[in-house]
Amino acid sequence: MIAHLVPLLMAAGLTSCGVYMLLERSLTRMLLGLMMIGNAINLLIIDVGGPDGNPPIFWANSGKETDADPLAQAMVLTSIVITMGVGAFVLALTYRSFNLTTTDDVGDDEEAMRVLQLSDEEVIAAEPDQGVPVSAGDLDAVPESEELR
């Protein structure tokens, strides 16, 4: 199997640009990055699918010595459908986020930042006892000050 260098370099360039765009905070850029990676995968599948040949139809003949591989074409069609489904989902998330926050930038999670700043002792103290079954009688014995915690 002979793989041509130019399509491989194009797939590598599309993948690297797509990954760079996925690392941005804007959901629109994330969507464009996903589309770039999807197109790079399609180009890679077609490139490694083998040389061109006769169409994979029983009665068609284009004068080539070998037949084209229909599996690569079917995989690209499947990849296109999956990429469009993921793109539609991310576009719906972007639309919903824009309606709620009037921006498509993803902000920091305040709760995650608060937990990140906790010390180890505070984390251990905040964790509930694990593995201890609680019955209905145990809940009645808990003082009111601890129920709210």
UniProtKB/TrEMBL annotation:
It comes from Mycolicibacter engbaekii. InterPro entries: CPA3_antiporter_subunitC (IPR050601), NUOK/Mnh_C1-like (IPR039428). It holds the Pfam family Oxidored_q2. The keyword Transmembrane helix applies. It is a multi-pass membrane protein. GO terms for cellular component: plasma membrane. Residues 127-149 are annotated as: Disordered. Keywords: Cell membrane, Membrane, Transmembrane, Transmembrane helix. Belongs to the CPA3 antiporters (TC 2.A.63) subunit C family. It is found in: Cell membrane. Its main location: membrane. It comes from the Bacteria. The chain crosses the membrane at residues 6-23, 30-50, 70-93. This is Cation:proton antiporter.
